[in-house]
Amino acid sequence: WRVMTLAGSLNDFCMWLYFIVEQPPTIITYTSGPIIVLHFDTAITVKCKARGNPPPEYRWEKDGQAFVPPNFQTIRANQTKGLLVLHSEDMSKFEGKYRCYASNKLGTAMTNEIEIKAFSIPKFPKETLSPIVVTEGEPITLKCNPPEGVAPRLIYWMTVDLQHIEQNERVSMGTDGNLYFSNALKNDSRQDYGCFAAFNRIRTIVQKNAMALSFILSEQPLEIDNKASRIPSLLLPSGVQTEKVLLKGEDLQLECIPEGFPTPSVKWIKMGEVMSPRVKFNNYNKLLSLSAVEESDEGKYMCTAENSAGKAVHYFDVIVEEPPKWLTEPPQSQLTVIGSDVHIKCSVSGKPQPAITWRRNGVMFRGEMQVFDDTVILFNAKAEDSGVYQCEASNRHGNILANVNIVIMNMAPLILTENNQEYAAVVGKEITMNCSVFSSPPSMSLSQLRVSSLFVSTEFVVEYEENRWEPGRWKELQRVTGNQATAELKLYGNLNYQFRVYAVNAIGPGPPSEPTERHKTPPAAPDRNPENIKIQGHHPHQMEISWEPLSPVERNGPGFEYKVKYRQLGVEDSFTEHMVNRSVFLVNNTPTFVPYEIKILSRNSYGWGPEPKPVTGYSGEDVPTAAPRDIAVEVINTTVLRVSWTPVPPATVRGRLGGYNVHWVRRRSLLNPDKILDLSHSMSFSGNRSHVIVPGLEPFSEYKLTVYVFNKKGNGPKSDPVTFNTPEGVPEQVTVLTSSIIQRDSVRLEWAQPPKSNGILTSYLLQYHLINETALEVIDSKEINITGADTNHWTLQGLKGDSLYRFDLRACTRAGCGPPQAEESRTDFPEPGDGNWRISEAVNASQSFHIIDGLEPGTVYTVRLMAKRLLDNASIFEDVIETRTKGERSAASQESSFSTHGWMIGTMCAVALLTLVVVIACFLRKNKGGKYAVKEKEEPHSDTESQKMNDDTFCDYSDSDEKPLKGGSLCSLKGDDATGDSVSRYTLGDYADGGREFNEDGSFIGEYSGHRHRGSVSEPNGPSLVNV
């Protein structure tokens, strides 16, 4: 429940009203159709949900009738939620169109139609097929007649061992699934032609019984040049013309499958118009396809099947239509008060124009409502007029529906301003009158009216209403100046009138007077004849006459009809006459595009209308029959022509002249005359003319040109072809131009040929300019003519060093030189060496490296990686490298050595620290001047090897040569010999020995193992002398 609070005030007066708001039903959501039910489905759910107050109840209709469940256990309709659940093993019995109705005491809302489609398992009927016997060369159609099923459906023709039947220009399948033979040959004979239908959505493939095709033996072989040649006709479609109606946005498919011998070819045109570039041709040109059609795709299409024996044509009238749609938006719900006029407008569009059906609470109007075209008017609305009104617009392509809630309140507006207030006013001056109003909903009346000046009525408007054709609808009949009180009215006969009058001044119209009594006019003959007569010829030998019909009120009496009179202008004296009731008449078997004189008269039971004036029009058009003659071509330049001809006789146009079409084919380029191109182009020129200018040709080429006339119906025959050559032209711009510095005063230029030479290349023109970099001006210019079409590089020498140059290169033919390609370069990049480039052998494309040998140590090289066969100057990679002398190692190598031999560094550090400690100890003892008499103790234990150490020990010294050290070794911190032996093994002398060297980073080049130990000590067997 909702509570609405309303307030109104006048000065300090306030008033509050509370009341419960009831709401009619409004559909919120429902299941939109169509609902596809497959053969394996056993249940479906259809939703319908509405809101309202009180809550709505639901009911369903099927195909316009109340839906009564055939079995209560299988169907459940939820009365409060609108849910419809259907259960059955056979869902086909639920096929149909459903509507959901939601109702409460204020009205009934309804949904659009919800269609349920049930599909069973698709299958071909069981049938026995007799062999088909044909004569060689005759056409034959193998019919498939595939079963209906869930889209998409795909058709295939295969043999029993699932080999596809070969299709070509002679044998092809139509969109209807049939297999068509334009002419049968003996090798078409087989016993197992099978049609297969695949339904991918349900993963089902069904097969028709195999068909056999055999031939009647003929003694004469089938040859093209004998009497077996046959004029084409169409196997599909039948007749002369087909009307194709489809919705905007759908895909168009037009199909022509011919028969004849030899096999006809198929061509398509859009008559009188250029074919859309979106058109595609499939199935060997037999199928024209156009996706997502638009209104511009409407028109006349023609297919032509032609062979050496003749041709056949078929016309397609393509009509693009639209389902109903709202012009702006659906009609909106309204809340108003009793006594007002309510207008419900249902503005829709569509093609064909939709018909509008009105309902109130789901029930069609029975005449109690006033309906005018697309509008329902509730005059002087009452509370009982409240309800849910439905506007449904439909044409053959669909329908749309809107539910409109109309609520008529039972509270009229309350005027709070006192009655009979007087206002003093002066003519020509402004006056303001207040009117305070309370209403629900808020009143649309003015609460304040400001009148800039007072006016008198300027004119009167007389309106009429008649109750025969448009009861309740008032129409303006005549306007009368404000100083008159009478009017003379012109009325139609056989009507029952009433009239009313209202006044109009500068502010606006006033209220109408009360209607007069009814006045019935007597019947009479029609006052006028139809207008807007149109004469059209959609097809040859046919003429359509149409006109704007008289409205029912203009007929003046019963028995109304039209008389159509026509005669061929300037040929026939008397008119041919027909009486018709419609506003269109078709005249058949007319000559092609000849003028006719037409009259349309109105008549009823009381007489004829006035004598009409004749209208002239033409009968149906046909394609032109003659070709232009005396075709002449004047070559203006390498790409432009002047084409002239003798126009065709007007009688051969057989229609309104559309213009002339010039068609030309580029046969070959004279640079490569052995290669046939056959590139087609055409241009259309409207109107009657005898010469045109044709642009867009290619230089130095051979062309063939024809001209033909066209009208709305199509193209006429082509003229005799004219062959001509276009002269050489200047080349296009050189695509690539690069420069590289070879020496300080030399630049190498490299380029690629222009994409189009437009003639025979003879040379290149190279211009180079010295540029002032400050003023950006040219200081000096020179040019060189480089002969040879195959030249793609050039070296300029003697240039000024450290300067900016601009190079312009043009390709040239005998016709001249083309536009320049520019490149700028500086001469300030001296490269060492001889300046000569050396090229390696080809590198495998799968390789990611290449070794270059034979380089000089300590030399700077520029290295380029080039793409072979691309362009000589297409450098993929370029870098400058410097070779090193033997023994040098890069920083990266040093870093790698440090990280790899860290353990050696640690060892060296330990040895250095130990040596430092020993040296310090030696100095300390020496400073004390002490002499250690240990020599005597050690001598008995010394051996020969230990004595030899005196020659090579690291610390062998004394105060003088005469005073050798005595006592323990200074390199031994302990008196034991084990320590002395250990020290002797790791003295720096071991590493400083000859044949060993250090790297730049201080690491050893040699290895520890395998050293020659000078002064090494064997394992001691007693005390030994160790000199440090």
What does this structure look like?
The chain is mainly β and 1028 residues long. The chain has seven helices and 73 strands. The strands form 21 sheets. Strands 4, 7, 8, 11, 12 and 13 form a six-stranded mixed sheet that branches. Strands 14, 16, 19, 20 and 21 form a five-stranded mixed sheet that branches. Strands 23, 26, 29, 30 and 33 form a five-stranded mixed sheet that branches. The protein starts with a strand and ends in a 37-residue tail after the last helix.
Secondary structure topology:
Elements (H helix, E strand, L loop, with lengths): L1 E9 L2 E9 L1 E8 L4 E3 L5 E4 L1 E6 L3 E6 L2 E2 L8 E3 L6 E4 L8 E9 L2 E4 L3 E5 L13 E4 L4 E3 L10 E6 L12 E3 L5 E3 L8 E10 L4 E4 L3 E6 L13 E7 L4 E7 L4 E4 L1 E5 L3 E6 L9 E3 L4 E4 L8 E9 L2 E17 L7 E4 L4 E4 L2 E4 L3 E6 L2 E2 L5 E3 L2 E4 L8 E9 L2 E12 L4 E2 L15 E4 L2 E2 L9 E4 L7 E8 L8 E7 L14 E9 L14 E2 L10 E6 L5 E7 L12 E8 L7 E5 L3 E5 L6 E10 L2 E2 L6 E4 L10 E7 L5 E6 L3 H4 L3 E13 L9 E8 L4 E4 L6 E11 L2 E2 L6 E4 L11 E7 L2 E6 L11 E10 L4 E11 L5 E4 L7 E10 L2 E2 L3 E6 L33 E7 L8 E8 L8 H10 L1 H26 L7 H4 L5 H9 L24 H9 L2 H4 L37
Parallel strand pairs: 4-13, 14-21, 23-30, 31-39
Antiparallel strand pairs: 1-2, 3-6, 5-10, 7-8, 7-11, 9-10, 11-12, 11-13, 15-18, 16-19, 17-18, 19-20, 19-21, 22-25, 24-28, 26-29, 27-28, 29-30, 30-33, 32-37, 34-35, 34-38, 36-37, 38-39, 40-42, 41-43, 44-45, 44-46, 46-47, 48-49, 49-52, 50-51, 50-53, 53-54, 53-55, 56-57, 57-60, 58-59, 58-61, 61-62, ...
